[in-house]
Design a protein that fits this description.
The chain contains 3 helices and 5 strands; from the N terminus they run H-E-H-E-E-H-E-E. It is α+β, with helices and mostly antiparallel strands. The protein has one domain: Alpha-Beta Plaits, CATH 3.30.70.100. The protein has a 5-stranded mixed sheet with strand order 4-1-3-2-5, with helices on one face. GO terms for molecular function: acylphosphatase activity. It comes from Anopheles farauti. This is acylphosphatase.
Length: 103
């Protein structure tokens, strides 16, 4: 295991907000399913402003994969205009036990 492998396993967290045509296309469900598959914890929800918002915590490498998915791919039929990731930090342990869709 090299230095990069160790860095990929550091626990990180961030908040995210996704802009564009992202509601009404299953975005929150696909986001939850992808996060669960990667072992990422946190939550996602539709905002009143028409965006998708959430918080994720997990291994740096896995969170990086979700950042890429949230920024470029998203759910089928969505149109991502912009993705913002804020409040980055490391965590000693995960504050969430799963990844949930909030309402």
């Amino acid at each position: 295991m090299g230095v990069q492998d160790l860095q990929d396993h550091v626990l990180v967290q961030c908040d995210f907000e996704i802009f564009g045509q992202v509601q009404g296309c299953g975005f929150t469900k696909f986001c939850r399913d992808n996060c669960l598959a990667l072992g990422i914890k946190g939550w996602v929800k539709n905002s009143k402003q028409g965006t998708i918002m959430g918080k994720m915590q997990g291994a740096k490498g896995d969170v990086g994969k979700m950042v890429d998915w949230l920024s470029k791919t998203g759910s089928p039929g969505c149109k991502i205009e912009k993705a913002e990731f804020t409040n980055w930090g490391t965590c000693s342990r995960l504050a969430f036990t799963d990844f949930a869709i909030r309402f």
